[in-house]
Amino acid sequence: MLTIWGRLNSHNVKKVAWLAQEIGMPHVRHDVGGQFGMSDAYLALNPNALIPTIEDDGLVLWESNAILRYLAARYAAGTALWPDDAAARAVGDKWMDWQFGYAEAQRDCFINLVRRPPETRDLQAIAASAAASAAQMAIVERALQRSPWLSGDNFGLGDIPMGVYAYTWFTLAIDRPALPAVTAWYERLTQRPGYASQVMIPLT
Ligand SMILES: N[C@@H](CCC(=O)N[C@@H](CS)C(=O)NCC(=O)O)C(=O)O
Predict the structure, then answer these.
(1) N or C: which end of the chain has fewer CB within 10 A?
(2) Which ligand 1 atom is at minimum distance from the Cα of 49?
(3) What is the atom index within ligand 1 of the atom nearest the CA of 62?
(4) pLDDT > 90: what percent of the chain?
(5) CA 122 to CA 160: how far, in whole Å?
(6) CATH architecture under which domain 86-192 falls
(7) CATH number of 2-75
(8) Ligand 1, CB cutoff 6 Å, lining residues
């Protein structure tokens, strides 16, 4: 059975737990990282001292997006999650790498508003981060005006990383410009059981 190590209030762990639900893969998840710490046994699996890590059929793997690609290729090949056609896969694939840049833009909002007590928050950093996130989301908006999903005509792997960050964006107490296509996409995501159970949890 698939094993996932990582606390669920981590963006990168959410991606993997959500995909496991989309594929319908039974799995066990162990809380690691953040307030749960990391044992020597865990660090032997992942020398980066980061989460998530998985073990599947003898394979130990870290890097969340590599995990998504592995699980989809192995367990969902030929479906919209992992189309046979390389060009069709690439449509969503680019958004997976693009998300890491987005995460940088949103980072100061998240750290200050979620991880720090109010008296130590850097309001300038929050404002700059909110503006940077909005500029990035405007790029997502233009893509979603052309197709309903970041992966194209169907929900796919490319929707998962940014889908996780969209929940944070819509949940944080920050100024957000009106982005109708992003909002409609987000509302469709909230209807997916795996998103509701693995992503829409308290940010803290
Ligand atoms: N590129 C890595 C980044 C992993 C990462 O930064 N994970 C964060 C949580 S989202 C982490 O491990 N933080 C330390 C901790 O939780 O103790 C991936 O995508 O898996």
Answers:
(1) C
(2) 12
(3) 20
(4) 100
(5) 30
(6) Up-down Bundle (1.20)
(7) 3.40.30.10
(8) 10-12, 33-34, 50-52, 63-65
CA gap 164, 12 in Å, rounded: 8
DSSP alpha helix (H) spans, 24-154:
40-45, 64-75, 86-110, 123-146
**Measuring CA to CA, which residue among 108, 116, 165 is closest to residue 139?**
165
CA of 153 to the centre of ligand 1 (A): 30
Rounded to an integer, what distance in angstroms lies between the CA atom of residue 98 and that of residue 82? 18
Q: Give the model confidence (pLDDT) of 128-158 as tens digits.
A: 999 999 999 999 999 999 999 999 999 999 9
Structure tokens at 194: 């795996």
The ranges assigned to domains in the chain are 2-75, 86-192
Q: What are the structure tokens assigned to 11, written together? A: 């963006």
What is the H or E stretch that residue 30 is in?
Answer: strand 27-30
pLDDT tens digit string along 145-204? Answer: 999 999 999 999 999 999 999 999 999 999 999 999 999 999 999 999 999 999 999 999
